């Protein structure tokens, strides 16, 4: 494989990958979603716990969690009538942690 062919292979990204990457960055572009993901990085929390700890309405938390769940960035388990959420993508959490560290060093 020539150097040009290798370079071209690295530049080509299929449409599905482009879409997923752009949606991931869209998810990370919202301060409320960032706060929720950062909290979930520290451990599992219920919707009411997230709302209380971040001073948000439960409806706001539920809406944002639905968005994050659709992107498979969070997952949940049910215990009785309560849903407990946790992060579901170590890569995205690592990206978030690196971005936070980058911002704190400026």
TrEMBL record:
Residues 13-106 form the HTH arsR-type domain. Transmembrane segments: none annotated. SMART domains: HTH_ARSR. CDD domains: HTH_ARSR (cd00090). InterPro entries: ArsR-like_HTH (IPR011991), HTH_ArsR_DNA-bd_dom (IPR001845), Metal_resp_trans_reg (IPR051011), WH-like_DNA-bd_sf (IPR036388), WH_DNA-bd_sf (IPR036390). Pfam families: HTH_5. The keyword Aminoacyl-tRNA synthetase does not apply. GO terms for molecular function: DNA binding. Keywords: DNA-binding, Transcription, Transcription regulation. The keyword Transcription regulation applies. It comes from the Bacteria. PANTHER family: ARSENICAL RESISTANCE OPERON REPRESSOR ARSR-RELATED, HTH-TYPE TRANSCRIPTIONAL REPRESSOR CZRA. NCBIfam families: HTH_metalloreg. This is DNA-binding transcriptional regulator, ArsR family. It comes from Priestia endophytica DSM 13796.
């Amino acid at each position: 494989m020539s150097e040009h062919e290798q370079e071209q292979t690295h530049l080509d990204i299929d449409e599905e990958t482009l879409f997923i990457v752009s949606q991931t960055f869209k998810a990370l572009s919202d301060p409320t979603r960032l706060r929720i993901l950062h909290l979930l990085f520290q451990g599992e929390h219920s919707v009411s716990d997230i709302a209380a700890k971040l001073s948000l309405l439960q409806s706001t938390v539920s809406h944002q969690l639905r968005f994050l769940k659709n992107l498979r960035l969070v997952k949940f388990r049910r215990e009785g009538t309560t849903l407990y959420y946790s992060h579901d993508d170590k890569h995205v959490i690592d990206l978030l942690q690196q971005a936070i560290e980058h911002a704190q060093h400026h």
